[in-house]
Amino acid sequence: MNIKTMLAALRGVTAYKDVLTQPVMEHALRLLTSAAQGDGLGGLEAYTDLFYQLRLEGFAGLGHWLGDALRWSEGPYPLLAERGGGDPALEQAAKLDISTFELLASVDCDKWLAHLSKLLDSDYQGVLTSLPRWRQGVPFSFERLTNAYREEGAGLFARYRAFVWEQGKLIPVAHPDCPSSEQLLGYGGQRGEVERNTRALTEGRYVNNVLLYGESGTGKSATVKHLLTLPGMEELRLIEADKADLGGLPALIRKLDGRRQKFIVFIDDLTFDRDDPTYSVLKTILEGGVERRPQNVAVYATSNRRHLVRQTISERAGNEMDRSETIREKTSLADRFGLRVLFQGLSKTEFLALVDMLADQREVKLDREELHRQAVAWERFHGAQTPRTALQFILSL
Fold this sequence. Notes:
By secondary structure, this protein is α/β, with parallel strands linked by helices. Helices cover about 50% and strands about 10% of the residues. A seven-stranded mixed beta sheet has the order 2-1-4-5-6-3-7. β4 (about 235-240), α14 (about 250-255) and β5 form a beta-alpha-beta unit.
């Protein structure tokens, strides 16, 4: 094991510099540097920090961590391979980097500890002997990584399907709350409209932005999140953004352009006050800016209101000369969603039929007439005739 040669090779990494900035590799570089400079105490500390960080991130070995880091890297080579592009210089740099990482992963812990033993006095020999080892192995190669980038994509968008946009950062959601078909109640026609638009998006077509509006509890948000569970939507990604964080969305959407995945930017429970500065940001995103919205991105929003900007009675009855133009300006935002899908409350017959179905599913032993009487009473005091109210009533029994 030539430590100085290995250290020089790692310092020369060019295509995967993002991997070097992660805590595991920072500790590994400290270990190499300390060993190369004859700093036994520094090397011992770096070794224990490296073991701790590997276990903290859930990896048994350095090679397993490297394989994961390289697979999900968003460096220039993985993104190039994802697009199917060609760059001989970058490809050669990536090959050299991966061979360096292979060399690092192949070093057995006993060799590290044997080298540190030479740098430390006898007081440390017992400590070195008892130190834990990480697993040796090289479960990656340039060819396997390149094939994975080309076939399945690279980076966070290949690894995760749902994200939260929060304070200018994209946060992956490993286990998104996506209801199954069996959990969705009613509104098949409305869901079908949303699904058809989304399938057109996944097919690479330029589609409408979508506004799902209507009564609370009708399943508007569930309809959007459910899309991730449908067959044929494997390349679909959902990015949920709060209204307060819309300011950074134009920059995010710009970065999504050219990626192989298809993206829904999802804004839940959208309503603006009349002086809300983010109103104009969303208006530009939907339609009206110099930049065209990327073909692989669509904006889906839910709201309890058909017109997304609140208006006061005085605005409606005011004495402005251009009052009608002001009202049109306030209501124009919803019109920028090319597909507007209404989720109305259920009729009494539909509501009671849904109560019956839920009662059967949960084996509620109650006379149907009494069940309906209680359901109507519950609805009067606890909400509207919606799937949410029906489910809450059944759960209360």
